[in-house]
Every structure is written in C-alpha cells, then in structure tokens.
Amino acid sequence: MNGLTPIDLSTIGRGFDNLALDSQAVFRLALSAMSRPGDIQELTAGIESPAGLHPAAGAVLLALLDQDTRLWLSPAFAGGHVSTYLRFHTGCVLVADAAEADFVLVANVSELPALCALSLGSEEYPERSATVVLQVEELSNSAGWPLSGPGIEGAKVLRIEGLDEGFVTQWRQAQAEFPRGVDLFAASAGSLAALPRTTRLEA
Amino acid sequence: MNPLDMQTSSIAVTPGTRDDGYNFAYLDERTKRMIRRAILKAVAIPGYQVAFGSREMPLPYGWGTGGIQVTAAVIGPQDVLKVIDQGADDTVNAVNIRRFFQRTTGVAVTERTREATLIQTRHRIPETPLAKHQIIVYQVPQPEPLQRLEPRAFETRRMHGLAEYGLMHVKLYEDIARFGHVATTYDYPVMVNDRYLMAPSPIPKFDNPKMHMNPALQLFGAGREKRIYAIPPFTKVQSLAFDDHPFAVQKWSASCELCGAADSFLDEVVVDDRGGRIHACSDSDYCRERREGSVQP
Q1: Which residues partner with A147 through β-bridges?
Q2: Hey, are the CB atoms on B41 and A23 less than 8 Å from each other?
Q3: Which 51-70 residues of chain B touch chain A by CB within 8 A?
Q4: Which pTM was predicted?
Q5: What is the pLDDT along chain B (297 residues), one digit of tens a residue?
Q6: Is B21 a catalytic residue?
C-alpha cells in the first residue's frame, strides 16, 4: 500500500521487548487456545498497540506474521496506524482482497467478511487457508454456544459478544467441506480464545 | 495453566544455564514463526501432515531433527523438559537432546514424567498418564502411513484429501489372510478424529490406546520428510481393525524383574554372556518410581 509515503517512526508504538521470549509466550497462549477451543486465555502483552488494535490481537499478529504472510485488514484498520504498525514490526504483506490473505484482522464483529469468501484451502492442502483474528468486546464461558469437537473435554460454552445466529450459520458453511475451512482467534482487550475448523457450534 | 504454578520438587528438576552465544532455542525467529504457524494449522486439522521448511540441525536426520525443531518452536523459559528415547532418559539420543536444550534455552530438565511440562520422545509414550498442562513431541522418521503402499507423494496426498484409505485396509486384510493376525507391532496406523489416517511414529502398538482422548497436546515432527502433525487433547484416535479381528496390544507372561510391574511395556535385556536375560520396564522413570514406592501397584 502506501509504500512510498514517508512514515514518521516516532509515531509507531513499541512492539515486543524481547522478540524471542515474548513471541514464544504469546505463541504458547495461542497454541493453548487453538488446542482447547473455547478456553479463554489471559493475554497481557507489553506492547504499545495503536488506538483501536486490542493488545491481545496485536500480540498474536506480532508473534505470527512476517514477510512470508499476507494480511488483510478490515476497513476500519486499512491504511491507518494499525497497518503502519503491523507493517513496521512484522514486514507482512498487505493485501486488498480478503480471499488472498493468510491472516485476516477484523476490527469489530460488524466488519467480519463472509467466511466462505476467505481462503479455505483445498482438500489436498487444507492448511493453505485463512486464520481470522477477530476483535471482540468480551469473551465469556458462563453462557453462549455449546462447543464440541477435538480439544473439548465434556461440556463447554463460549459467548463471543456481538456475534449472533448468523455467525453460526456462516461457521457451519465454511467448515462444511472439512478439511477445508477457516480457523478463528477471538481477541478481547486482554484475552484470547480460538475456534479451529473442527469445532462445532450448537445454536 | 501457568507452568510456574505447578508443584515442582527441587530434587527431581535440574535448572539449566543458557549459553548466550545462541539465539533462544537455537533456531532463528523467522524459522520459529514458520514452524509455529505450521503447528497451529496442524492442531486445527488433526492428523493432517503440514509441510514445513525443515532446517539443517547440528545432528543428522534420523536423530530427532523434526522433534527438536518442534520443541524449539514451542519451548519457553518456564518449561520443564523431559527427553526419552525408547522410554529411557539415559540413552545417548535423549541425553544429547536434553543437553542441547539446556545449553540453548537454559530450561530446567527432569527425568520425571509428572514434573515435565514438555516431553520429547522417540518411540514411546510414558506409562504415567499425561496431564492437561503437558505437551508431548514425537520424533517421526516416516510421517506418511501410506508410503510403503503407494510411494508417489502426490498420490498419497490425494488419498488423504479424499479419505481414500482402502489400500491400508487391504494391507491389514492380507496380513490376516497370511499370518492369521495383523502383523504390525509398531507404527500401527490410526484414524484421527474419524478423518485422517496417521502414522503414530514407531511407538509399539501397546502405546496406541494412550493416544485416544489424551488430555495432553500431542505434536509430531519429521525433519527429513519436512512434516508436522498434531493430535489436540481429547481427540478420538482409533487403531485400524476389523470387527472380527479387533485391535489388541502386546501382552507378556513375564512381569518387570526390577519393579514387578505387569502393566508396562517390557524390554528383554541380555544380562550376561551365557544367554541370561530378564524382562524390564522400557519406561525407566516409571520403573524407578515404582521401586521407590511412590506408585502403588
């Protein structure tokens, strides 16, 4: 995108203090979240994320993005401080078409693109599919959709503030051709939960 | 699930010191990120082999380079690492890998399954049941279960894509027709989450039932073949079988000569030059715990 516009570096917030240890710690939380769908992980990253970017969402992206990954930003973030911040710290490639992205950062639930329009991978290469990082107001295990599938012991419910029945329908459609599908991290300001494509949502 | 909250007895866990000449956990950060992204996709698609850019490691292929790269991408300063080779902590491969991580990460190491948060293993699953906070990393020589039946990788990839596993059932059937039973005793193929046929690495089939609904996260790394795959916790893992030839694990008429265990995987060990031999637990930590009396039979 605005590759030729000079960037004032003093306006860019701090990333990880210790690249090796901080990215490891964030990755471990993301791995816990992905292997135990619906479990809410407390994530307090010491990064100065720009206004609008939840520290938890920012930390996950700083830990996983680099020049080998393509990132799509939802309209609220595209072209602004968030894109400069992530570009500066990770060197990721920004794409304008969500269907081409490896990672999809969504500022809020109202900007969530249609999941089936994202990269779902192929039957032979299902891992070539999008990972969505969705910013949400709140995550809760005290009410919400019952979850089932690998990684879930017994009964578990997850409520993602702002998502309705329409999301459940979309989720089912996106995962209908398993192993094709998308995986999702939901990040509130200080916590993280994941829904891999194997997780079924009852509504 | 903070590893620091775990009870760790001071005797069983040895703290390490890190050599600052290496990046933390040896690999560069970009490599670790690439492996981490592969691991996350592997967890999301249980049993599917994700290709990754396997790096040259300071030891040859076949010595656990895949497992080491997965461990290096996962390990953090709070981890307590255990490394086993055929169940034992004191064999050359296990000792070397443990020293490698002590030197490059400074993490604490242990021989006790209960104290470990991260276990790298070659060819065994510990007898002591794993817990929720643990991650076990398997070293895998040949990740493709269909390779001996279909050598063309593009063809086996297609078979996985279509869940077309008839060939493996025919192979097992031919075993039964020829020998009267399925003649595979290790690396016995499993179905993960009712979808992917997976090689469990050359663990004895005795260990296969432990993979089913295991509370720990199971990660697999194949360095030469450049594949990573995973079984999330509490995931269905079934050993292939037929209704009239159900899956069964090895049984021994002997029990362990050292600790008396009748429920563990036994190695036959030659003890002198006159043909004397005993049966002993392959899992050295389990055997010692029993001899020390901390596990009631």
Answers
A1: A156, A201
A2: no
A3: none
A4: 0.95
A5: 344 344 444 457 888 889 989 999 999 999 999 999 999 999 999 999 999 999 999 999 999 999 999 999 999 999 999 999 999 999 999 999 999 999 999 999 999 999 999 999 999 999 999 999 999 999 999 999 999 999 999 999 999 999 999 999 999 999 999 999 999 999 999 999 999 999 999 999 999 999 999 999 999 999 999 999 999 999 999 999 999 999 999 888 999 999 999 999 999 999 999 999 999 999 999 999 999 986 554
A6: no
Residue A89 burial by CB count (10 A; 0-12/13-18/19+): exposed, middle or buried? buried
Please tell me whether residue B198 adopts helix, strand or coil conformation.
Answer: strand
In this structure, what is the dihedral angle of CA atoms A187, A63, A128, B156, given to the nearest 10 degrees? -120
Residues of A numbered 82-121 whose beta carbons fall under 8 angstroms of chain B's beta carbons: which are they?
none
Which residue is associated with the tokens 């292929």? B61
Q: Please enumerate in sequence order all residues whose Cβ is within 8 A of that of B11, keeping only pairs 6 or more positions apart, or say none.
A: none
- Dihedral sign of CA atoms B148, B151, B155, B161 in order: positive
B64 catalytic per annotation: no
Question: How many CB pairs lie under 8 A apart between chains A and B?
Answer: 112
CA distance B175 to chain A (A): 29
Question: Which residues, other chains included, contact B117 with Cβ-Cβ below 8 Å and sequence gap of 6+?
Answer: B3, B6, B78, B79, B80, B81, B133, B134, B135
At B173, list the tokens.
């059937």
Strands A103-106 and A183-187: unpaired
Single-letter residue type at B223: G
